[in-house]
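Why this split exists: single-chain examples teach little about how molecules sit against one another. For that reason, every record in the complexes split bundles all components of an assembly together and asks for one structure covering all of them. Below is a record exactly as it appears in the raw files.
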Amino acid sequence: MPAVMAPGSPTDVDVAVVGGSLAGLQTALTLGRACRQVAVFDDGRPRNAPAAHVHNFLGVAATRPEDLLAAARRLLDDYDVTVIGSRVRTVQREGDRFRVTADGGTAMARSLVLATGLHDELPEVPGVHELWGRDVVACPHCHGWEVRGLPLAQLGRPGMAARAVERAVLLSRWSPDVVLFTDGDELPAVLRTRLDAAGVRACTDPVRRLVLAEGRLRAVELRDGRTIARSAVFVVTRQHQQSDLAQQLGCEHVTDGPAAGAVSTDSTGATSVPGVWAAGTVAVPALLAIGAAGHASTVALAVHNHLLERDLAAPRVRR
Ligand SMILES: Cc1cc2nc3c(=O)[nH]c(=O)nc-3n(C[C@H](O)[C@H](O)[C@H](O)COP(=O)(O)OP(=O)(O)OC[C@H]3O[C@@H](n4cnc5c(N)ncnc54)[C@H](O)[C@@H]3O)c2cc1C
């Protein structure tokens, strides 16, 4: 049976997990099944929440993100796992444990797993925010199948032409009708050659807005007034950590390359701070949903082994 988290008095657990989306809930499932007492804190902002459906997840046909998480939470009822729906404000080391302080309770944990995910900074083009997760998406592997063969746009952002070209080239495998909008960036010959090879047309004029009708995308409108009809727009996002807890704890972060900004870990998810792990996209930004869950199960095994060694080094009465 899950422990009850009493307001005011800290609850002792083996592991506190911050973040209760794909990575956090899989961490809790694996550790709960290993007879560990776990507290999961989550403030309900999974990154894919705006999406209508989750795709490309083994065994799950297009389901709503909230339904997938609700089913995952129900599985935890059989184990000694408590899910607390609130935001963790601080995490402090106290001796060989961590004090995790959230709006809805406090836990003292022997180990800590950060599964706090990322959020996406979207291009500031009118219409993008309104349609995010539906007709405006980022990842062809997640949402390309549903719009295959349709007129598609890849929207770049100023200063990121090379990345936008790579995304447009990727997208060209889902449709023969892809237009790359660079939103004002010129394209060097080498990038144009790649686009030509992929059959992608390029438009370097500044974009004014996305044209919507009845809540759906109709077209991309350029600053000069021209409109190009499109069924879906793929955007280049900038990704940021959802939480500063890793910084609070002094964890090292990746400083360059595609994963810049991620929490640095070894192959088991261990961070530079002993006793602290990072699971899912907080550590590996490119993970799809099932990858975040898979990564988390690997992290959970390492956390369990770490606790096992501590159990053996300092035997205590089993709960
Ligand atoms: C629009 C969109 C659509 C997507 N569609 C797909 C798809 O169809 N298929 C696919 O495979 N992938 C998809 N993805 C990618 C997928 O969302 C991620 O791979 C997945 O969400 C990563 O899971 P995570 O657990 O690492 O992080 P997240 O899902 O971001 O979860 C992090 C959790 O931590 C919580 N949290 C953060 N800080 C705190 C704190 N201090 N205290 C308490 N809680 C905290 C947040 O509230 C959140 O619930 C999509 C992404 C986006 C943006």
